[in-house]
Amino acid sequence: MSAKDPSLTFTRRGDDDVGPFTVARFVAGELSAQDADKVRAALDRDPALAAEAQRLEADKQAFALSHRFADLEKKLGPAEDKGGVWAWLTGPKLAGLSALVGACALVAVVAVPSGEGPTPDGPMGEAGIRLKGGQHLGVFVKEQDGVRLSVDGEVLRPGDQIQFVLKDHVGAKARVVVGIDGKGAVSVYDARGLTEDPAGAGPAVLEESLILDDSTGPERFFVVYGTGSPKALLDRVKTAAEDLAGSGADLSSTETLNVDGVVQSSTYIVKAARADEQRE
Amino acid sequence: MCLKHEAVKPRNRRETLRQLYEAHAYRVYERCLYFLRDRQEAEDAMHDVFIKADKNLASFRGEASPLTWLTRIATNHCLNIIRAKKAAWHDKYRREVENAPRGEQKGAERTETEQLVRLCLAQVDPELAEIATYYFVDEMTQKEITELVGISAPTLRKRLRLFIEQSRAEIEKAVPGVTFRPPPV
Question: In chain A, which residue's Cα lies nearest the Cα of B75?
């Protein structure tokens, strides 16, 4: 390497330019026809990119000769139907949520084992779930053909099934998840000590799923991380949540609880009546 | 191959995994080798990545390209390995930087950047390490990274600047007396 001029500084491409990663996707054959044409044009103009494309093609062919899928299959074992991310919904239902769940104004609770649900270190955490930067909390929504992460302020309906997804804060010793609904009711969904270092781990889902009841209005969910005991954190968070609920603050824009010395993030949904109910 | 939700129904699981493997395994292996610097370890890690992918095929809904999805799994998997014994990895990377050939041959700058970034990955915050890999090693655009990781462009630039700042301190230890060009972000 050049000792006088180490570079983390090579020329950056614009967002619309073709870069090496786009070329890799081109070689992998996953670009649309339009994007592929754009790459071909770029390869014609840029010898370095063309060389990169040739290298990737050659590597791909050479690799295929020496690394066969059968080797991976030996580790995988026989193919089996492991079900989808919501397969666990068909599992035996537990009696209820944890003892820490308080007044559940939001939901009729269905607590079920996680079974084949997404794993903390799996791609649901690494790519399938993509919490925004700095976010520690998201809400999964079940749909007929799968699950998805809700967006802030999304309108959901009675009967919709949701599940919290959390990306724990590094160094936290305790975690509390609470919700405040539009009527000012505070619900505690989770409170626990954290022992494992979450560094590097992706988001993980909370075990229990929730089914929205027929109340309407905004509901904000908070996750709060602290370094003290879970009980102490729970007390502080509940007090702050009750204060906020009592203040009549706009839940769509109030993103934090008044708790000092903690890390927290939140998301919110809007519960609306179903269309047929609205007509009645 | 554009993997759609329909393509990952159980009956297609193994065939879908095979298609993913045949289309992208070489890139996953390349990513693992970049971090782990050992062919056998890289192959084992590549298999681990596909095992993870197999477990979660049903949850992959085609939001990202299959290559992007696997790249992210591989990146985080390797960063986890490195983080477990980060001092040892840092020493290994530092020796590589110190022993790197010095020259101006074609492609040297990219190789140099990859070495320098790797030197710093074990030392910085996991989120910084991940985005730095996409930016400096994969040369993804900022737009591609923000879509993949789910952060805003200003947040991405802020984190990249932080990475560069922390990295320069590390590089100065490995290559005393260096000077730096202005940062790219």
Answer: A126
Q: Say if A70 is an interface residue toward chain B (CB within 8 Å).
A: no
**Is the Cβ pair B110, A10 closer than 8 Å?**
yes
Distance in angstroms (rounded) separating the CA atoms of residues A82 and A101: 31
Percent of chain A as helix, strand, coil, to the nearest 5: 30, 25, 45
Among B26, B69, B82, the residue to mutate for chain A (most A Cβ within 10 A): B26
Cβ proximity of A168 and A194 under 8 Å: yes
- Which among A9, A253, A67, A258 is positioned nearest to B160, based on CA atoms? A9
Report the CATH number that the domain containing residue B40 is assigned in CATH. Answer: 1.10.1740.10
* pTM given for the model: 0.52
Residue B150 lies in a domain: yes
Q: What is the 3-state secondary structure (H, E, C) of A242-270?
A: HHHHHHCCCCCCCCCCCCCCCEEEEEEEE
- Decide if B65 is inside a domain: yes
Decide if B31 contacts B82 (C-beta within 8 A): no
Contacts with B, A 169-198, CB within 8 Å: 170
Q: Does A2 sit within 8 Å of B108, measured CB to CB?
A: yes
Look at residue B102 and tell me if it is in a domain: no
Kindly report the nearest CA distance between residue B27 and chain A, in angstroms.
Answer: 8
**B33 belongs to a structural domain:** yes
Summarize the confidence of residues A201-213 as an average pLDDT: 74
Answer yes or no: do B19 and B76 share one domain. Answer: yes
**Same domain for B135 and B77?**
no
As given in the structure block, the two tokens for residue A125 are: 């955490």
Q: Kindly list the residues from chain A whose CB atom is less than 8 angstroms away from the CB atom of residue B64.
A: 127
Contacts of A142 in chain B (CB under 8 A): none
Domain that holds residue B120: 109-176
Per-residue pLDDT of chain B (185 residues; tens, 9 = 90+): 323 333 334 446 788 888 889 889 999 999 999 888 888 989 999 999 999 888 877 666 555 588 988 999 999 999 888 877 777 777 777 777 666 655 444 445 556 667 777 778 877 877 888 998 898 888 888 888 888 888 888 999 898 888 888 887 777 776 666 666 555 55
CB contact at 8 A, B163 and B132: yes
The total number of structural domains that make up chain B = 2
Residue A60 near chain B (CB below 8 Å)? yes
- Is A8 close to B117, i.e. CB distance below 8 A? yes
Give the residue carrying structure tokens 């904000």.
A220
Task: Check whether residue B159 and residue B117 sit in a common domain.
Answer: yes
State whether A29 and B64 contact (CB < 8 Å).
no
* CATH code of B115's domain: 1.10.10.10
Residue A93: predicted pLDDT:
28
